[in-house]
Amino acid sequence: MLQVRNLTKIYGDGTVALKNVSFEVPDGEFLVIIGLSGSGKSTLLRCINRLIDPTEGEIIWNGVDLCALKGEELRKVRRKIGMVFQNFNLVKRSSVFANVMSGRLGYAGTLASMFGKFDQSDLEMGRGVVERLGISDQMHKRADELSGGQQQRVGIARALMQEPEMILADEPVASLDPVLAHSILKTLEKLNQEDKITVLCSLHYLDLVQRYATSVIGLRLGEIVYQGSKTDIRKMTDEQFKDVYGAEAERIGASIEGGS
Amino acid sequence: MQARKTVQKEQKNSLVPPLIAAIASCVVPGLGQMLAIAVHRGIIILISLVSSIGLLIWRIYEAGKRYSDWKTIIQKAYYLNPFLYVITALIIIGYILNIVDAYQQAKPQRSKATGMIFVILLVFFFQGWEIGGIDMGSLFADADEAVPALTRVMWPWDKAISHPEEYRTTYVEVQSPCTEEPYPSGEVKEDEPYLIADPTCGDPSVVEKSLGTEFHLIGRNFIPGNTIEIWWKDPINNEFHHRVGGDYLIIKPDENGSFDVSVIMPYRTIPPVAGEGPKTWQIQARQLVSVGGAQASQELKLAVEKMIETIFIGMMATFFGIILAIPVSFIAARNLMSHSPLTLAIYYIVRTILNIIRAIEPLIWAIIAVIVVGLGPFAGILALTLHSLAALAKMYSEAIESIDPGPIEAVQATGANWFQVISYAVIPQIIPPFVSFTIYRWDINIRMSTVIGFVGGGGIGFLLAQWIRILDYKAAGIAVWFIAITVAVLDFASAEIRERFV
Known about the structure:
The complex is a heterodimer. By secondary structure, chain A is α/β, with parallel strands linked by helices. Chain A has helices spanning 41-48, 71-79, 96-101, 110-114, 120-132, 148-160, 178-194, 206-212, 230-235, 238-245, and strands at residues 2-10, 16-25, 30-34, 56-61, 64-65, 81-84, 166-169, 198-202, 215-220, 223-229. In chain A, the strands form 2 sheets. A 6-stranded mixed beta sheet of chain A has the order 6-7-8-3-9-10, sandwiched between helices. In chain A, strand 1 and strand 2 form a beta hairpin. In chain A, helix 6 (148-160) runs parallel beside helix 7. Chain B is an alpha+beta fold. Chain B contains 18 helices and 12 strands. Chain B has helices at residues 2-11, 18-27, 31-35, 39-63, 70-80, 83-106, 115-131, 136-141, 143-154, 298-331, 334-337, 341-359, 362-373, 377-401, 405-413, 418-452, 460-469, 473-501, and strands at 161-162, 165-176, 194-198, 214-220, 228-233, 239-241, 243-244, 247-248, 250-251, 259-264, 279-290, 295-296. Classes of the chains: A alpha/beta, B alpha+beta.
C-alpha cells in the first residue's frame, strides 16, 4: 500500500510543481497518472523514489515514510522500486546486458560491481530477464543500436533486475509509435498481473488509459483534479478529459483494439 | 539595429551652426562632430587623430634623439626617415577632412566626408609599416646570401654520414752525420706510397750558425687531393712537425698522387744519452685517408638520442597531465559542483586557477621550471605537465558537463551508490571525449616538446638552438628534419587512433 499525503514540491526558482497532493495506491494496482506536460506527473513519480526531494508531505510505503529516509536506507528502498523512463535513459555506449545488469547494482558489492563483476546467480537472473523480454538476440549489441521499442524493453529489464515491488513508469511510451506503445504497455500489464508488481504510470492518450489503467488520477498545475476507478475511466467523458487536459484537448480516437 | 540607431541620431539637429562646428573641430579634432550630435563619430576621430599624432611625435623623437634641440631633431628625423613625410601629409589631410566633416555634419541636411575614415586607416597603415620596420626589399636583396644556409638546412644528409679517417705515415730514413759509407735511399714501390730523399745523409741546422742540409724529397703513389704533412722523427723517437717560417709544412699532391719538395734539416739538440756516432732520422709524410665504411655521424647519433628524449618528454608530460587532470576535472565540472554554495565556490576557484595556468605559454613555464630544477628534460616535463593539466582538466570537465543526466538518474533509481553511479553512468559516457582529448593533447605535447628545449627544457630543441647559434646549418637541418618527420608520423598515428576510438 502506497499512501501519499499532502505532498508539495516547490523548486528552487519558486515553481510550484505539486500542491498538497494526496492519494492511495493499493498493492497490485495499475495506476495511471494523466495530465498536461508540466502538470507535475514527472515530479510526483520522482518524489516517490526520492530522485527529487519533496518540500513537504509524507509518502508512506509498506508503513515506512520514504521522505524521512537517508543514505543506505534510502538505497535499500530504491532497490524495490523500479523506474522506466520516456527517453529510456540507457547508457548508449554500453552493451544491452551491461545496461540490464546495472539494475542489480543495489544488491551487488561496490568494488566488484565497479569492475563489472556480478555474482553468478545475478548473471543467471539477468539472462532470464533478457529472455523473458525477448531481447536475447540483442544482448551484446550496444544499447544505441536498438530500436526505440527494444530500448524500452531494456529499460524494463533493468527495472526487473531490481526484483521490484513497484514500478514507476514516466511516460514510457511517449517516444514510441502506437503499435510499440501497446506492446510495451502489455508488457507492463503482464508484470502487474503475473508478478503482482504495483505500477504507477503516466500516460497521455485517453484510449491507452482506458485500456490499461485500474485506477486513474488526473493532475493539473500540480493539483489532483480527477480521481477514478476502473469503471469510472470506462465511463470517462470528453468533458472530464477536457477538465484535466484543458479546453483544447481532443480525444485521440486512434484505432486501438481494446480486448484483453 | 546598428543602422536604426544611426538614423535616429541623425534626425537630431546640430547644437551649433556649421561654421562653429568646423572651428571647434579645427581646435580639437572631433569636437565639432560631437557638438553636431554625432558623438561616436567625434570620439573616433578624436582618438585616432590624437593617437596618430602622438605616434608621429614619438617616431620623430626616436629617429633624431641624438640631437638636443627640437629643430635639429625634426630636421634629422625627416632626413633619416623620409617615410615620415608621407605620414605627416596623411595626418594633415585627415585633419582637414575632419574640419570639412564637422562642417557637413552640422548642416541641416547632413552629409559626411567619406574619405576621412579611409585617410585615417591609411595613416595607421603607414605608421604600422614604419614602426614595424617592414622592408620588402630585404626579402630579395640578400636572398642569395641565405641560399647556402637554407640549402644546408634542406639537405643536410651528407653530414649524417661520417667516414672514419686515419693518418697514414710513409717515411724515408736519412743519416746524420754523413759517413763514408753511402746510406741507402728509399725504395721505389708499386701501388704503395713511397718517399725518396736526396741526399741520404746530412747535418741538422745550428742556431745562428748554419742551415742544415737541404733534402730533396720525392713522393709517389699518394692519394691525390688529400693534404700531406711533413714530420720528422729524431734518433730518440721524438716526432715533430716540419716548419717553414713558423708554419707547418703542408703539401697537396698532384692528380697522380706525386709531389716534390725540398726541406732543410731542422735544429735539434740530441741529449748525450743517445750516444756518439751517426744516427738515423726519419722524414715522414703523413696523409689523412679514410678507412672502413661509412657510419652514422656524431650529429646524427645526437639527433636520434635527443629526438627519443623529446618524444618521452611529451609522453611523460601527457601521462602526468592525465593523472592530475582527471581528479581536477571532476571538481571543475559545474554539474557535479552546483549543489551547494561551498562546492560552487571551489568550482570557481579551480576554474580560475586553471585558466591562469593555461593562459601562460608552456615556454614561459619552462623558463620558470629551469630556474627551479635546472636545465634538462625534467624542466620540460614540468612545464608541459602544468599546461597539459590545465588544458586537459578544462576539456575533461566540459565533457563531464555535457553528459546526458538520464542514465545517472536511472542508475540512481536502482539503489546504486555514488561510486556505482560514477562507474556505470558517468564513466561510460565520458570515455570517448576523454580519449579524444588525450590523444589531441599528446600530439600538442610532442610538438611543444620540440621547442621547449630552446629555453633549456631538454630534448631536440636544445640541440637545435645550439647548432643554429654555432651556425652549423647542416646539423640544424638534421634536427629540423627529425622534428618534421616525428611530428608528421605522430599526427598520422593520432588521427588513426582517434578514428578507431571515437
